Amino acid sequence: MSNNKPKTKEETKEKSAALQTDSFGVETIKNKRPPVVVVMGHIDHGKSTLLDFIRSTNTTEKEAGGITQHISAYEAVVTNENKERKITFIDTPGHEAFKSMRSTGGLAADIVILVVSAEDGVKPQTLEAIEWIQGHKLPFVVAFTKVDRPGANIDTAKQSLAEAGIYVEGYGGDIPWNAVSGKTGDGVQALLETILLIADLNNIHDENPEKTMGIIIESHRDPKKGVTATAIIKNGQIEKGEFAGTEGAFTPLRMLENYTGKAVDKMSAGSPIRIIGWSEAPMVGNKFYIFKDKESAINFAKMPQEEKNVQSENTGDKKTVAIIARADTTGSLKALVYEIEKFSHERVVPKIILSGIGNVGENDIKTAQSDKESLVVAFHTGIDTGAKSLAERLGITILSDDIIYKLMENINASIESRAPKITIEEVTGSGKIIRLFSKNKDKQIVGGKVTEGVVKLNAQVNIVRRENKIGMGRIKELQYLKERINEAEEGREFGAMIESKTEIAIGDIVQCFDLQEK
């Protein structure tokens, strides 16, 4: 498995540092910890069913819209060579709408399971996952799912992977793979053993036991407990009585829970943990560190972090629509913001002026009232009664839904409806001037022939010479063989009185147009 072998001197040095020799002279991994695994793949390729089987619970039926809305993490215990070992799984959503959340989950992981349906092969989100894996150089295993289905064909699925540049073992490459069924459980034990083998080959260990560090993968505001963050411990150990600090937030470690919600006193590297009581909601993807005293944690939270480019793009003549965004967790909020920022229109652009987790409150409506065309959007969260009443009185639009795709359809339609109207000229007919009869001040009597469309009485016209617009006018009279007419069709000659300050010449084109507002 060449993708799992060190290829540089630095990687070789790191591998040596991670090994130790036991009393029998056998090299083992120092400070071994559970590997953290993220599962990626196309929607409906059996990811959730596979994870449900592994953790022996069922969450698929609870997923709004048929997909996982939040990142969650849990531990699985695997019996391997008569020993129990743990694997930590980060469950990430599989649809493009949650691309930013998937990336965040992946940053906390050591190994990726690339789920590919044995029925469908490679699909758009599969390609996206492959690109991400290769960009971050993470070791991975391919899990061919739905092998219990009548239409399953692993060879065809392997071929589709090969066409995407991924060559599995036995098919021209060295990427490990397993055939699995999340429904029957076939092949799942072998997949877990493959993960542990990859972990050992990559010497996954606690790289710095003396300095505890972890990564926030989700945070939300619990009405009873306060701000809660789910995190993966990457190095060291967390114990009650210490303090945690991250960008913009800190907390004393009074309440710690494992992934089941059970209170714990301490947790070690590789484990998921819930930390309760943060001063603010930590941002998903941020690192946190453990400190012995409160002052150090607060000072770290206040430290200037890496400068971020928060300036919006130059909108030029585009109209800006202000948006206040609310969601139940930071992961959901990040996904919502990602989707809103994808909106593209030639005359209008959304700008998020306020965002946060929790219900839509009166302060959100008051913030929006400075511009009646502002939008307040709520994903997977409630709207306070007072906020709803205030919005109705002030005429502020609130859009809310638990399914992001439906919510985004409404948001995009609302933003687009706020685009400024523009007036465009729609050409309805053209005529070429072939005779000049007379001119009296601004009134010119000419003869012409319709070359395209219809030339109409009282129509506004552009006067075009050698493909360049040189002036404008209006047809005040229109005749055919001295008979007054209302319009002349293509191929027909006409006489016209055109009112214009521009002097018309033989060969000029008069273009009739209507003004349309769009």
Could you explain how this protein is built, in words?
The structure is a single chain. This protein is of the alpha+beta class. It contains eleven helices and 29 strands. It has a seven-stranded antiparallel beta sheet, covered by helices on one side. It has a six-stranded mixed beta sheet with strand order 4-5-3-6-7-8, with helices on both faces. The two termini are 58 Å apart. The model is unreliable at 1-9, 11-16, 21-27, 57-71 and 306-316 (pLDDT under 50).
Helix/sheet category: alpha+beta
Whole-number average pLDDT?
84
Give the N-to-C terminal Cα separation. Answer: 58 Å
> What kind of sheet is the major sheet?
7 strands, antiparallel
Count of separate DSSP helical elements: 11
Shape: elongated
Overall radius of gyration:
33 Å
Strand content: 35-45%
Sheet with most strands: strand arrangement: 13-12-17-9-10-16-14
Helix % is 10-25%
Give the strand tally: 29
Low-confidence segments, given as residue ranges, are: 1-9, 11-16, 21-27, 57-71, 306-316
